[in-house]
Amino acid sequence: MKKSIIAWIFWIYIVLLFLLVVVKYDGSMASIIDRMDSYKLSRMNGLWNLNLVPLRTITGQLKYIRQGWALKNILGNMILFVPFGIILPAAYEGCRQFWKTLSIGLASIVAIEIFQFITLLGSFDVDDIILNTIGLIIGYLMFFIYHKWTSQLQL
Q1: CA torsion 136→140→143→146, rounded to 10°?
Q2: Segment 1-24, tens digit of pLDDT
Q3: What does the buried/exposed string (b/e) look like for 12-42 if buried means 16 or more CB atoms within 10 Å of the residue's CB?
Q4: DSSP label at 125?
Q5: What is the DSSP string of 25-45?
């Protein structure tokens, strides 16, 4: 019973992640359409919403780290995926090995970036993949420590 509740929590988290990260839904469909139109116009002018150079975005933002938007973007990209690393192995015993959680998480992160790029809902940024993966790993480490601690208490 407990595992099924955690599985439901995981899928609710995935839906919220999709709405917040992929669609960037803020309550207004007009803002989503405007963003898509903006990316479409940029592409027609030869500017692609694409960064394939690792650390380019991160180093650019580190120059402005004292400004709220840069810190919010860097930390936000990590924090959003901490729950993924915690809830996935908690909900599914088959995902308790680090490599399984990392593989599923990384595949999901890359899929999100590709989906955003194709649908014009956002950009593909390899730095987002790096930051999201760091968050995923932090979450998994939190799960692992908690799981080890609670299993030792039951001895």
Answers
A1: -120
A2: 587 999 999 999 999 999 999 999
A3: ebeeebeeebbbeeeeeeeeeeebeeebeee
A4: E
A5: --S-HHHHHHHHHHHHHHHHT
